[in-house]
Amino acid sequence: MKSNKLYMQMIFIVSLIAMLGSLYFSEIRLYEPCEMCWYQRILMYPLVLLSFIGLIKNDANVRLYVRAMSGIGILVSTYHYALQKIPALGESANACMGVSCTVQYINWAGFITIPLLALTAFIIIFILSFFIKKD
């Protein structure tokens, strides 16, 4: 279906932008990713490949894998954002190895942090996956 291709393209673009954004922060800006950031990367990076394969093969079944990974990504990103923005939660959390998961490298407009950017991408991808219909 033609609309499936459009939604798969959108998922590919969103996941690619999220991946490139995370690489920009770590490789160009030299922000060291915390443990929770790595978990979010582990969930986001394969979405680029999955959506690309689904796009090339015109396989609507990819939506199930995309939906599952982005759904888990929503949970991880929400928890990470809560660690950063809810002081009591951040203070009581187990210590991450390396960089603290409460570090806010960016804090645009007082609330936009890297986990919120990841959360936004995961939500967009999750919603788009529901528009892809089985052939």
Automatic annotation (TrEMBL):
Family from the record: Belongs to the DsbB family. BdbC subfamily.
Gene Ontology CC: one annotated term: membrane
Keywords: Chaperone, Disulfide bond, Electron transport, Membrane, Oxidoreductase, Redox-active center, Transmembrane, Transmembrane helix, Transport
Pfam family, one: DsbB
Segments traversing the membrane: 7-26, 38-57, 108-132
Keyword Transmembrane helix: yes
Segment forming the signal sequence: none
Main location class: membrane
Protein's recorded name: Disulfide bond formation protein DsbB
Listed InterPro entries: DiS_bond_form_DsbB/BdbC (IPR003752), Disulphide_bond_form_BdbC (IPR012187), DsbB-like_sf (IPR023380)
UniProt-listed GO biological process terms: protein folding
Organism lineage: Bacteria, Bacillati, Bacillota, Bacilli, Bacillales
Origin superkingdom: Bacteria
A GO term, aspect molecular function: protein-disulfide reductase activity
Mode of membrane association: Multi-pass membrane protein
Protein's cellular compartments: Membrane
